[in-house]
Structures are given as C-alpha cells and as structure tokens.
Amino acid sequence: MRPVLFLLLLAAGLATWAVRGGHIDVPPDWNPWAPLEIAAQPNWLTRHKLARLSDDPAMCNAVLSASTLAHASVPDNDAGEGCGWQTAVRVSDARFGPAFTLSCPAAVSLAMWDHHAVQPAARAHFGQGVARVEHLGSYACRNVRGAGGEGQRRSQHARANALDVAGFRLADGRRVRVLADWDGQGAEAAFLREVHGGACRFFQASLGPGYNAAHRDHFHLDRGAFRLCR
Ligand SMILES: [Zn+2]
What we know:
With 230 residues, this protein is α+β, with helices and mostly antiparallel strands. 33% of the residues lie in helices and 21% in strands. The protein is globular.
C-alpha cells in the first residue's frame, strides 16, 4: 500500500473512532452517528440520517418519541400480497387531520417537512402558520395509479409508506387546495410550489399536478426506494 493512502486511511479511521466513541465533542447536528433531531436545522447530513432510520426501527421510534408529533406505535401487519406494514405508527395529531397509519420513517419525514418547509412557507406567504395539513389517506393495499403501464407495481401506500396531501388550513381558517390553487398566480400557488419542492428534501418522492393527471388534486409523498420530485 502506498504511504499516502495508508496515512489517509489511518486519519479517517482515527476520526471515526474519535467521533463515534465520544472522544471528540462534535455537535449532534454535525455528528453522522448522532440521532436525527426533527426540530434541528437540516444540513447535508440530514438525508443520511433520514435514510438510516429505514434500517433501524428502534432509532426511528426514538426520534419520533423525542418529537412533538402525537403518535403511538402499532403492531407489524403482514396483509399478504405485498401489503401491510412494519415499524409503523398511528399519527393522531391535530396538525395532520384524521388519524392514519404511517411507516415510522415517513412519519419522521412528515414532521420534518411540516416544521422546516410548510410552516416557514406559510409564514412567508400568508403571515401565519398552517393549522392543519389536510390528507387523503396513507395506507391502501393497491397498485400505483396513473399512466405509463405502472399499474402492475404495488404503491408505497400498500406499505403505509406514503401520504397523500390535498391541501392546508391556515391558522385563520383559510384553505389552500392543490386542486383549486396549484395553477393560480397568487400567494396560494407560490406557497404550494414551495412546499411541494420542500417535500423533496425530506421524502424520497414528492409528486404533484406536474407529474400526471392522477395527482392533480394532491401531493403524493413517500419514503420508497425511488427518488422522484415532479
Ligand atoms: Zn399517493
């Protein structure tokens, strides 16, 4: 082995040992091994920390438990034929409308999206927060909808790994709807485009009216394997 390569590997190994073992004090935000904090300012490690939650149910549950999201764990459910869920929670939070079952990683993404994208965008465009994210449901044992011969593939909804969001209710009661406001010119359209883009920072897929006609009235947000923002 070349000496330079050896020294580089040695330095990397030492740094890993020092950070992981707590021998060097690195702020949690900048420590790749520290658990994600939903309210912490996102940085370049956030996607790595989010991805890791999919393989670590205990860590995912710990992250949610440390958050303000009202939720409870639910038993795993193998419904057969590619349907059911693992490591899911029942979200029963007034900020997200009627209760629904969602995979833990998707619930973390949802809480981060609300905190870091939806609320700031609402304050910027309307001078007030969002009181409720209005959804169309999460779990459904079904295939992907829409054109393009995708109908043979199971939807992320079949694993409770996706949520469809139809609109938002502002603090003063005003409603912003994907169906009615996406194509507008005003603050509503600007807000919707901003939160649709913002969802790409925390979910794998964020699909809206720009994707296909099946999504003209909602945003599809999921934590599946494929990264797609349209
Ligand atoms: Zn969907």
